[in-house]
Amino acid sequence: MADCFPDFGYLRLPRNEGFAKAVNRGIERVETEFGALLNNDTEADPRWIEQGLAVFAENRDCGLVASKMVNYWQRDRLDSAGDRYLPTGMPLKRGNGQAITAFPRLEPVVGASAGAAFYRRRLFDQVGLFDERYYMYLEDVDFSLRARLAGFNCLYTPDAVVYHMEAASDLDRRDQSGSPLPLVFYSDTRVYWITRNRWLLMISYQPLRHTPQLAFGWTRSFLFHLLKAGHRKAFLRGLGSGIAASGYAIKKRKFLKEAGRGRREDLWRLMRTC
User: Fold this and answer.
1) Looking at the structure, do residues 56 and 117 belong to the same domain, yes or no?
2) What pTM was computed for the model?
């Protein structure tokens, strides 16, 4: 990469310590008013940066911008139009699999996928960096929730376009018959971390009023892995790890308390409607 882009600055880490820690080391070096994160399994439209930064100029309360992420392999389909976080405790890609003509307007969303997003630098100064305890998966959801509770809006723009391959570095994604394995559950590692971090998100940000929906969501996930998808051991290990870290997650409920009722209600409304 350095040979292809010799004018860029590079920060080489000695080993893989997870997504959150890696991007944090880069964010710490940002001295400009705005910054962007872009995965290495993406292809950005030539006007991606221009269109993403334009949102900040017209929306002073906006702290982060979600890109229009298009499926790299099926370019008539969305990969995501921002992040959702449901009352069931399930984080989802908004618009995944829908036609690229869906979501044609600039609009608020719960959060932005860190695979292709823009940020105000002062946002990190105010709410902190990505939570390195998440290691990988859902750290961007956690960050987006903290940003919203601190009063920063998150907007999705259909004009900043990125084509996303998703998990392109995972070359072996086939079962014994040679059939492709769905990315949602093909890996024990993926199931473990997503399950663990889902639990942490729930403890940190969900209101008690969502308890029935949360119970339904976790029961459905367990049955899904038990009866259909497999990886039930990874699911249970992830759940156990999340429960063990609940004390840490409870401390992060301070962001709910400090936000005030208005911001909390706005966030929970977006969970239901976005």
Assistant:
1) yes
2) 0.91
Same domain, 263 and 193: yes
Residue bearing tokens 């990505």: 130
Q: Which domain holds residue 145?
A: 19-164
Pick from 164, 198, 229: which residue ends a domain?
164
Q: Residues 236-247: pLDDT tens digits?
A: 999 999 999 999
pLDDT tens per residue, range 86-105: 999 999 999 999 999 999 99
4 within domain boundaries: no
Are 160 and 251 in the same domain? no
Is 137 part of a structural domain of the chain? yes
180 located within any domain: no
The answer to whether residue 32 is domain-embedded is: yes
Please state, in angstroms and rounded to a whole number, the distance separating the CA atoms of residues 65 and 103.
Answer: 15
For the chain, the domain total comes to 2
Are 136 and 193 found together in one domain? no
CA nearest neighbour of 158 among 63, 54, 66, 271: 66
Residues 6+ apart with CB under 8 A from 178: none
DSSP notation for the chain: -TTT-TTS-----SS---HHHHHHHHHTT--SSEEEEE-TTEEE-TTHHHHHHHHHHH-TTEEEEEEEEEESSSTTBEEESSEEE-TTS-EEETTTTSBTTSS-S-EE-SB--TTEEEEEHHHHHHH-S--GGG-SSSHHHHHHHHHHHTT-EEEEEEEEEEEE-SSTT----B-TTSPBPPTTTS-HHHHHHHHHHHHHHHHHH--GGGHHHHHHHHHHHHHHIIIII--HHHHHHHHHHHHHTHHHHHHTTHHHHHH-HHHHHHHHHHHHH-
